[in-house]
What does this fold into?
Amino acid sequence: MSTKIKEAVRALLTEGKIKGFLGLREEKGNIMPYLFCDPKELDALSLGDWKKPGDTRYPLNQLMIKLAMAYPNETFAVLIRGCDERGLKELFKWKQLDEEKIVLIGLGCPDELAKACECEKPFPDSLIDGPKGEKVDSQKVAQVEGMDLDTRLQFWKAEFNRCIKCFGCRNICPMCFCNECSIEEDQLVGTGEIPPANPTFHLARAIHMVGRCIDCGLCEEACPADIPLRTLYKKVGEIIHQEFGYKTGLSVDEKSPFNIIEVK
Amino acid sequence: MAGLAAVFGSGAMTNSIEEIENADCILIIGSNTSVAHPLIATRVFRAKAKGAKVIVADPRRIPIILQSDLHLQQNLGTDVALINGLMHIILKKGWQDQTFIDERTENFEELKKVVEHYSPEKVSEITGISVEDLEKAAEYYAKAERATILYTMGITQHTTGVDNVKSLAHLAMLTGNLGKESTGINPLRGQNNVQGACDMGGLPNVYTGYQAVVDQAVKQKFEEAWGATLSDKIGLTATEMFPAVLNGKMKALVILGENPVVSDADCLHVEKALKALDFLLVIDIFKTPTAEMAHVVLPGAAFAEKEGTFSNTERRVQLLRKAAEPPGEAKPDWQIIQELSSRFGYPMDYASPRAIMEEIAKLTPSYGGITYDRLQGDGLQWPCPNTEHPGTKFLHQGRFTRGKGLFSAIEYKPAAEMADEEYPFQLTTGRVHVHYHTGTMTRNSPSLEREISECFLEMHPEDASELKVGEGDWVMIASRRGSVSSRVKLTDVAGRKTVFMPFHFLESRANILTNPTFDPVAKIPEFKVCAVKIEKMDRSDKSISSPP
Amino acid sequence: MEFKTVLSFCPYCGCGCGLLLEVLDGKIVGTLPSKTSPVNQGKLCIKGWTVHEFITSPNRLTQPMVRQDDALHDSSWDEALHLAATRLKEIKEKHGPDSIGVLTSAKCTNEENYLLQKFTRAALGTNNIDHCARL
It folds into this structure.
């Protein structure tokens, strides 16, 4: 357990700089998202490492949006890893959260986790504790890319055939904040059938993750059918990098090619 | 459960959910797993990815067949013939586990004699499955190092339900697939706490932990603990209660969180019975059609609004935490029951669900070691006889509850009501992936209602064209018990002359049609087969019959 | 201000998936799969993901009701419980304990099922208790 993080949060709470800290709480063997408002509670703070590093990560940014909507004038701190920080950068650009009202409590991921995630940047800029690990290139995308076109389509269709349409990939996604969701569009995917329209359902979601997906991998972890969604969305990310030179969530200043309408 | 109890001496899922993913062969029979038990389907997907052979036996082309190596599309109600056929092939080829049979079972000769008559050709004739597929299935199952069977109501909701279950248990014993990891015979329970309701003695013949009401020592134990005189006469099952009301023997019913007006076979009959009652008390969280008929309705708390435990299908007792207050004046059911009991003249004064569990543990050997403090992590799987016991992952290791596993001779009997000239279609019922039971909860959930908001009748396109019915047209479906209207959905999910309807929808209650004739032992009605006729409805009728 | 997630278990099928209810200032606002649950390991189906919707439905019963003039009317707990206890007592006295039947619930907790069968057997004096295990 990180004393550095605990102390940083304690200081923010005691000095009254934040109303609360959105992190993870460990209670009798269960790890759950929790808003710490009292420094005395911090002994129960967890960083989301249970049996393996990062195996109890939750979409804290998504919960942060709910909190900020209920309390728009308050400032909160939130526990973030490299991926979560990429998410926050995009959420600021998309005006889903106010940069001024969020304090980032950054945690770097160990190599084991960075490798499992094939992470582009396994640490946040606002690093308080944890390693500043190396970028890991994606083998999984390369593997699928290695298949010829027909095999590749068959591969994905076979994966999507297991889909039970739980919407978990969307529900857990910290970047899915639309009021209307394309995969709930009757004209596009229809209702009442499992597996849902193959490959339309998953490709429609993949397309909508362009410029949004920050490669946290929570979707793949939440998938009851173990569909390699992360590989699919990584590929989508690669395409926009090639086409627009844009890397989702890496810079707060660089405008997203998908968010060119400015709200002033 | 009666079927498993007869063979092994106890009835419950023998193995655990997590073990399924390490099986080498999975036989899914009468279970629409990815629709009705999605998180168990996850384990099937994983087993498949690790190379397991997956056999799905179901009259309908259900979604899980996309992950199967073999789909056996048996005719409705022919499961005993199918399983006897598989055992016939296994014995012919010598694939049985003779050591297991010799050491752990009895009465094998009797089984052998009956199975002898079920040649692949004869079974193929009855079930509609090709001889080749029967042989392949027998080989996959028998030759696997660890084979497991998953089943649900597609097996039990028949007049031959107990026979079906016993046959599956025989198949597992024949091949030694019991008492080890990733094997077994696993009834996937359909309700979150149906296992618990059984464990807690919510049955007419047993107290908690399946202690028989006719056993005098048990009766005495409970009389002492409860300070009351108890009856040793076995009570009526739900399926027997409604006829008892109609013949005047039963005058009052107390119904906690159930909706028989939609859920029970031949539900018009149930409705008639409820109307005939002198007094009906319903405790529920919604104003169900059953609650509408009550004399007194008491508002309960939902699972998220109280403490307590649920026991899942793998016998895992898990502790609920209270997340919010119940709405308005609603109260947790345990409080309601004890207030009612106290006013009735039998005072109850438990401070909390924890205190109730302490009493349960004292009186129930299989729950003896279960305490709230021990349930904080992953919960505990019963049997858990004492507070040092870690719980039981899989049953029947080394020995069955009754000692030796009991084989018996079971002959195939057709469903009680077969299609005939007047009622030429066979109807089967089941769930859809977004709804649950009578829809009390799911139909109050906009995300689920968005996916499927009305009933449908699945019909083969060729049958539909004979009736001149198109996709979305309204039809009237009639059985000997009543009739309902529904839209038609054209699909070849089932074969010709077999139609399917979900039972969640009050507007088109499938259970108006279903056959209440029940299995003589388990008293489960034959929800899964009845004979119906189907007529196209005039457009002008639409306004009358369409759902509100 | 209070925001927490509370561990609970899915009320639908028998899998028994662990889920976290998101509670903001005492109101349930969402559901997440529990990552520490041995059954579902951080995954849920569509029904599990949406349990907060029915819990917070405006159609929930909030008040006891008693039948009067062939319709159900709101009542107090005192009136409803008194009526229920009195009617059950009258029927037991007049027609005997086996004239009453009880359906307990596969949706309710073990503790509630235990109490209801205890009430049925010890107070009403009958073994006429069952539930929907067969349905």
In short: Chain C has a mean pLDDT of 95. Chain C has three domains: 3-55, 62-95, 97-135. Chain C is about 30% helix and 25% strand.
